Amino acid sequence: MADTTVLREGLRFGEGPRRGPDGRLFYSDFYEREVRALDLDTGAEEVVCAVPGQPSGLGWLPDGRLLVVSMRDRRVLRLEDGDLVEHADLGDIATFHANDMLVDARGRAYVGNFGFDLHGLIAEAGGEAPLLEPGWEPPGAALALVRPDGTVSRAAEDLKFPNGMGLLPDGRLLVAETLAFGLTAFDVADDGTLSGRTPWAALREHGIAPDGIAVDADGGAWVAPALQACAFRVEEGGAVTHRVATSQPCFAVAVVGHRLVCCTAPTSQPEVVAGAHLGKLEVFGLQGTPGNA
Question: Has the keyword Hydrolase been applied to this entry (predicted)?
Fold first, then answer.
């Protein structure tokens, strides 16, 4: 039985949930090609923008303008007076679809990418089994740094499917490496460059292929495990402190006030979810958990 309450049904595939500047939940629906905003208290929802290239990661510049990753054309777009314009072109860095993004308080965006055709490999293999073998070595991918003026550089190399990200209370950047089954931390310099790459949590023994993550006030990370119908809270070193059951596999999480919001779907394979409405938003109350006392 799920620990969560289903808040919304009928999504195709929800991703990139974030608490917006106005307190609402913003999220992308890949295959509806929309970014939406949802008031968790009233249930009122609106379409913020349509993204033909398939939206994923979200964030905001210091002046409140929305940034959104356009996956298939490997760009970051900026919402200007109701219209999307190009903020950055990631084509020289992303070797397959662009993916999740973190935008810090200074407007610097860190953007991951698949690195290769993951869904095509899974379809060809008839399932995820080859990816779960400890000896399988996935191709590496670079993490992009997009500065507020839209200039792009490489922030880190050879990450194994860089996915969800969060900022730790000590200022380090935490990156989910989905296909390395772990979380990796980086020191962040004043100019936004990264160094001091350090394993933060090894999660293979728990079967956690970390997809989306959300860092809480105590420095723990809520992790969407992609292959399991639950969300986990993990601390540095890899200790799992909490497990929240969801109704179907969880691919992304956000902490919005005292709520954990989970984006769930039966699978991430496009041939299953792109033409259906099987995705859900599920919510769990965090009162009393670390970081949300």
Answer: yes
